[in-house]
Amino acid sequence: METLLDKMDLPAMVRLLTGAAMFELHGEPAIGLEPLAFSDGPSGVRGPVFSGGRPVALLPNATLIASTWDTRVAHDVGALLAEEAHAQNVHVVLGPTVNLHRTPLGGRLFEAFSEDPLLTGALAVAYVRGLQENGVGACPKHFVANESETDRMSVDSRVAERVLREVYLLPFEMLVADAKPWAIMAAYNDVNGVPATEHGELLDGVLKGEWAFDGLVMSDWFATKSTRAAANGLDLVMPGPAGPWGDALVEAVRAGEVGEDAVRDHVRRLLRLADRVGKSAPGPAVDPADPARREHLRTIAAAGMTVLTGGDVIPFEDTPVLLIGRHALRTVAQGGGSAQVRPPHVVSIADGLRAALGDRLTVLDGVEVRATPEPADPAFVSDPETGAPGIRVTSHQADSSEQASTHQPVPSLLLDLEGGPHDGAASVVLSADLPLTHTGDVEVGVIGTGRWTVRLGDHSHEIALDATDVGLAVLDPPHWTVRLPAAPGSRLVATRRPPDEGAPVGVAALVARPAPADDEDLIAAAAAAATGAARAVVVVGLTPEQEMEAKDKTTLALPGRQDDLVRAVAAAARSTVVVVNAATPMLMPWLDDVDGVLWAGLPGQEGGHAVADVLLGRCEATGRLVTTFPAADGDGPAWSPVPVDGVLDYAEGLGVGYRGWTSDTPLFWFGHGLGWTTWTYHGAEPEGPDALVVTIENTGTRTGREVVQVYLRPDDDPVRLAGWAVADAVAPGERRAVRVTLDPRVLRRWTSGGWGPLDGGRLVVARGLGDVRLDVARPAPADR
Ligand code: BGC
């Protein structure tokens, strides 16, 4: 490698240290270096593009995977992603996300595993091994203290040293020690006053120094704020080709402000990455709709689903079912932002139950769940030129000549950002025909910055939409809609010219759907249909308006009038089960009115089948919660994600998540989940150093799976998960001795300058801290 480095002069080396494009690096023919390609992660491999891409497998999102508490599942996920990456010639997948669920308002929690550092670290280790054992690099992110999204490019996360070490750095430390990731991504935020991309103490000192990380540190996208300061620690600026390094870094080295050794080390790490990923050839094409792939995704999703209440009514016999809710029809399969992929299909919960129940299923739409419009369902719009589902996009240059004309299967595209055929056009026209079968009013409109003219039949509207920056123009674009009468087969034409002010780039999408019914009428219709029904299932949830990158939530209340819908159905039906389609905590003011609640997460492309599987008893919903659910807004150790004067104070210290719940009682504890059988815990015996053998018995009637959780309750510090083990296929009446190893990395204490022992305390065996089964003294150090 040193000889390769010697072959390059300074500008040649520096050129390699900024991306060549959004997701690609430069190659260097002089040393035989091929350009590397990256792709987001973490719930599918979108390919080296920001939007669209080819159809790829959409996995259940991280919280659902984590809810299995099963490192074998996380390993499987990594291996599956490696196949998807190979097929697209992607060398590094940008994941997993190992930031913690600090406040339940965090917009991006769906992408991250849990509120607990040990559970997060262990799952991430398995996920990274699954990827890298199959020749694809992982890039755990975002290093570090990036737990919320508000002002994410500038917020200063203030975290005490001990808290940083014991809580937020721990998953990264476990990864470096146990999985050796080939890359790590430095976060947008500052950590204790220093940008994460410039944090010499953390990047050079802790990560590369103390932990001996030999991989590559890349910046989060557009996160690098300086030339000189970032050059000590960060190895690669993403994306490119522009950025703060390039010529400025060459000059800084020549001026003696940055050592040439530092540049050589960055390039060395880049070449090491190229060497590691270069060992395997591109793989065969994979079909995300292949039956085996579909079955795999369905099984993972079902395993993570969690029975919150009503262990005696879930699963139920396949009686006639009345299914209600917008999320039943339009099930949300993934969160919003850079993690999004384009799946081949999404099996809605209505589709899944219909496949299982046929005409024993009745489906009813529910209340509105979004405040902002979505791009049209491709099934509702067709390309005027070809008649295919989707829209036609035609762009023109300033002299009115046509630039390009393309069919867009998903009625949304990204302009002027990633080298598309319509980039740089003076105007772009999005057009579609509405269905011939549709009568009545429609809601139509546009999403994205620009000066728009929208025409439907005789109606014409002029609208100007702005966004203050590129991030918002892409992730949270402005929108406009109107309700209009429309003749069957009417043509909708929206012409976009770049905005006068604000971000010229971003999303351009067409909105079109049948005008929605009034919420009050939908609730009344649901209650009428539910009257006397033997089995009602109401599906509620969040949408990417709440669970998305770049934005945090402001409340845990369900959006729209979903709570009213649940109450109305519960009052009318003989039995009501609620299915929750969301990744993160929400309030359930109707909890006592319903017979059972199944948490279904963001279940990926096969979600609807997985829900049918666990509701109807094809398999057990074996999930255990990975985040504590507050009972009311404001409850819990950390709430607001909004920085004060630029600072977000991690004031709860070590007491993050369940560790810090003291005064209020949560709605559900981290670790809670009923499954489909019942368990007696007979006893726990310490065995050897830091292990406990717990004897459990399945006292129910079905063969089940138990997650045996052991917590350490230290004398003076907050309680913490110290280990767990999964007991598979325990038959009814069977007793099983389950060995739980306690991880030494949570049995220690950081005092400034180093690690010391954390002795004493008690070991608590619990099915979540709300259901403690055993409490034993921890053996004294001499006995361990
Ligand atoms: C996100 C990263 C992502 C990157 C590339 C950023 O906005 O924070 O997680 O990998 O974009 O899409």
Q: Which tags fit this structure?
A:
about 775 residues; Rossmann fold; Jelly Rolls; Immunoglobulin-like; globular; binds beta-D-glucopyranose
Write the layout of secondary structure elements.
Elements: H1 2-6, H2 10-15, E1 38-40, H3 62-66, H4 71-87, E2 92-94, H5 117-132, E3 137-138, E4 141-143, E5 156-158, H6 161-168, H7 170-178, E6 183-186, E7 190-191, E8 194-195, H8 200-210, E9 216-219, H9 228-231, H10 246-254, H11 260-277, H12 291-304, E10 306-309, E11 321-324, H13 326-329, H14 349-357, E12 361-364, E13 391-396, E14 402-408, E15 412-415, E16 427-433, E17 441-447, E18 450-456, E19 459-465, H15 470-475, E20 479-485, E21 491-497, E22 506-514, H16 519-530, E23 536-541, H17 562-572, E24 576-581, E25 596-599, H18 607-615, E26 647-649, E27 679-686, E28 691-698, E29 704-713, E30 720-730, E31 735-741, E32 748-751, E33 754-757, E34 762-766, E35 772-777
Parallel strand pairs: 1-2, 2-3, 4-6, 5-7, 5-26, 6-9, 11-12, 11-23, 23-24, 24-25
Antiparallel strand pairs: 7-8, 10-25, 13-14, 13-16, 15-22, 16-21, 17-20, 17-22, 18-19, 18-21, 27-28, 28-31, 29-30, 29-34, 32-33, 34-35
The structure holds beta-D-glucopyranose.
Beta-D-glucopyranose binds near residues 40, 141, 220 and 338.
- The top-level CATH class of the domain at 292-372 and 519-649 is Alpha Beta
Q: What is the number of E strands?
A: 35
Helix content percent band: 10-25%
Q: How far apart are the termini?
A: 46 Å
- What is the average of the pLDDT values? 95
Largest sheet: 6 strands, mixed
Gyration radius from CA atoms, angstroms: 27 Å
Bound molecules: beta-D-glucopyranose
